[in-house]
Amino acid sequence: MTVTGAIWRAQLTSEQLAVLGRDAGTIANARPDVLVVGGGILGVAIASAVHDAGLGSVQLIEAGRLGAGATGGATGLLIPEPHQWSDPETFVDLERASLERWRYLEQLAPGGLGLVELDWIGLAPEPAGLAAHQPKNIEWLDATKIAAIVPGLAWHLGGTLIRHQARINPLRALAGLAEGLPAVATGVAATAVVVRGDRVERVDTSAGDISPGAVVFATGQPPVLDGLDLDIPSDRVKGHLLVTEPTPVRLPCTVAPVATPLEDGRLLAGGTFDYGDESPAVREEVIDMIIASLRAALPGLSGVGVSHQWCCFRPRHPDRRPVIDRVPGLANAWLTSGHFRTGILNAPATGMAIARWISADKPPPKAIAWSATRFSRAH
Ligand SMILES: Cc1cc2nc3c(=O)[nH]c(=O)nc-3n(C[C@H](O)[C@H](O)[C@H](O)COP(=O)(O)OP(=O)(O)OC[C@H]3O[C@@H](n4cnc5c(N)ncnc54)[C@H](O)[C@@H]3O)c2cc1C
Hints:
This protein is an alpha/beta fold. Helix content is 23%, strand content 26%.
């Protein structure tokens, strides 16, 4: 039987699951030094970085359960290098720094966060079009070499091999980081903001008011709250994913666009871009299309069923880059939004950037690339 829902929850212990629903409806600290609104990977990573930096007391609030948004449905790939062909250097640098930070956090967390080191192969007809300056960890393999590394692949294609990338169960990582936070309230939504002069004085929530020293909004798309004057264009792009039942068909690493190997011999496939589809429901025809192309690439999977299928929405700004900024016009409020395809990867570096910004009261170098005002006509 196929479960409709991400596989990630099924991989958690009961303790980790409990962390995702921590302190439901209870605000432990109504006067925190820093309030973080949003309990996806960005919010939790920011709260964690602020806490680790010793910037005072931190309270995080999340409207649902931790990971209820895009985070709980992501693929969880931590692969900065393939983006050098599609994204500006500033962006890829943030991702590279973030992967290093994930590795550091993996070492630090008791029992680890579940980071899995893996290589990445991108299949392609020919090497033309690859980056002119390829880093050392990138290698072009012809079709014979690919066939030797990926036995059972029906396609006669070469590919780019990139070593030392990674993946993570986003909910396990979230639970691991959230466990170390002093004050997390799930089931608590921010509803309005009271601004006096250039400062957020109060945040109204479904469980009472909070008067923070500083506030960070990490709500996926930019927050829509009474009293907060924000005009940042954004939308969201739906994606479908599936996981197969355990199979003897093995992949040595992520093989794009085919699949990523998971625990127990399962394969994770999909990551569609279903533009214009706003329904929260899984569409069977999209799942059928994903499994059909997976079986076409790996005919050995013909009798293997789908164990999990799901969809989720990527928050996106028009240029597909995130916003990481102080809220325009406010001295004690920050926001991050629109992490689109790489929010799991970007989270630790974004958390560090915001923690440093709060601490030093000045933007980090290159902050202009992530500005909230870059979409305005005047800008
Ligand atoms: C199919 C798919 C595959 C993906 N694969 C990858 C991948 O391989 N690697 C990668 O790095 N990224 C991937 N992503 C992208 C990644 O999932 C997102 O960029 C990331 O999860 C965004 O995290 P976030 O914390 O900003 O948003 P979210 O996870 O959406 O969290 C925002 C949270 O804020 C809460 N919230 C909103 N408003 C309020 C309020 N008023 N009060 C309190 N709480 C509030 C919401 O309930 C939500 O839980 C993928 C996404 C999709 C859809």
